[in-house]
Amino acid sequence: xxxxxxxxxxxxxxxxxxxxxxxxxxxxxxxxxxxxxxxxxxxxxxxxxxxxxxxxxxxxxxxxxxxxxxxxxxxxx
Length: 77
Hints:
This protein is α+β, with helices and mostly antiparallel strands. The protein has one domain (14-73). It is 34% helix and 16% strand. It contains 3 helices and 2 strands; from the N terminus they run H-E-E-H-H. The protein is elongated, with a radius of gyration of 17 Å.
C-alpha cells in the first residue's frame, strides 16, 4: 500500500520493484483499464532488434509506419 504526495508521486513498494526487476532509472509504462491501473517495465531491447524478427513484412513500409504512428499517438501518457 502507498500514498500519493502533493506532487502526485508514489513509491513503488520493494516487493513490486523486485518482482518486476525495476532499478533506479528504469522506464515504466502506466495503463488504465476501468478502475485499475497497471505498470510495466519498458524493455531494454532496441526497436530495430524487435523489427528484425518481424520479417518478412506482411505490409508495405509506409502503411506500417502510419500504423506505428497511430498506435504511438493513442498510447496512455
